[in-house]
Amino acid sequence: MFLLAPHPKPERPLRGSPRMFRVDWIEKYFSRVRPWHIVVLWVPFALWCLWQAVTTVHEHPVTLTLLIGVGVLGWTLSEYLLHRFLFHFKADEKSKWQPDAAYLIHGIHHDYPWDGDRLVMPPFAGAVICVFLWMLVHLVLGDHTYAFFTGMVSGYLWYDLTHYYVHHAKPRTPLGKWLRKYHMLHHFSGTHARYGITTPLWDHVFRTYPQEQERPAEDVEAHA
Length: 224
Hints:
Elements: H1 24-30, H2 35-55, H3 61-87, H4 98-111, H5 123-141, H6 145-168, H7 174-188, H8 201-205, H9 217-223
Helix pairs in contact: 2-6, 3-6, 6-7, 7-9
């Protein structure tokens, strides 16, 4: 299904960057994404939203600041919900398409968590989610959507770049080290919890931040 290359389930997470699609041009242009791709695509869109909010909608500075802040918060909730319910949906193994869809959406990342080409969201998938969220938000906020989406897209960039950072870099700051451990525990201590990437806020709200004692940091780092 989905023109995927063969992908037997490894016994443990592996390093490397496997082939994802059988078709060469799909593999090249729709499978591998670098962080600069999303920066080039989404920073101009966020700036355009801000420009529209200021010059077309004429948002008051206080309202603008508030909507941008709520937009960032809104993204953190979207990040949590997408990760928990879409990325980790439980595939029916008897289905002809669900196991492949689960692998395509997020399974490959858990099989090869250090693959630097697959740590940020592909632009096409991001655009689909953006259109859906835009229509949903516009029903509620109307023209205020521009200001709200300035924050939401900024939150998305924060999320994707943070995700790349915690997998691909060695954080030096206490916050960076904590975020890395928080996400690595999701990978290596059970994928049923810690769905946030940028913040544990919604894990606490929805009770998916386990209260049991966590594994020592050095044990997590040994996997990472």
